Amino acid sequence: MIVRIMGEGQYEVADERVAELNSYDDRIEAAIAADDETAFRDALAALLDAVRASGAAVPDDVIEPSQLILPRPGADVDEVRELLGDGGLIPG
Predict the structure, then answer these.
(1) How far is CA 40 from CA 3, 29, 64, in A?
(2) Which end of the chain has less neighbouring CB within 10 Å, N or C?
(3) pLDDT digits (tens, 9 = 90+) for 21-77
(4) How far apart are CA 13 and CA 54, in angstroms?
């Protein structure tokens, strides 16, 4: 699956990693619900780090449709709240 980190680029991540990514997404949702900015920032950083670590960077000259679009590093709670769907940032 192709995952885009806004403002950074795309990564090809194996479908088997979705469950792991969902665990970070759950932490993000819980932090937003609790209005806990510190927990939110930690969870978002962990999610983005997991994508970077488990994915292969897609070269900048290759344009692929993204199955997931994640917030930019440093995004705040209000920005991410707008991006959340019923299933969080990562459906499933």
Answers:
(1) 20, 8, 29
(2) C
(3) 989 989 999 999 899 999 999 999 999 999 999 999 999 888 889 988 899 999 988
(4) 6
Strands 2-5 and 68-70: parallel
Residues making up the chain, counted from first to last: 92
**Which pTM value belongs to this model?**
0.87
Burial 4-34 (b: 16+ CB within 10 A, else e): bbeeeebbebeeebbeebbebbebbbebbee
Question: How far apart (Å, rounded) are the C-alpha atoms in residues 91 and 83?
Answer: 12
Return the beta strands (E) in the chain as ranges: 2-5, 9-12, 56-57, 68-70
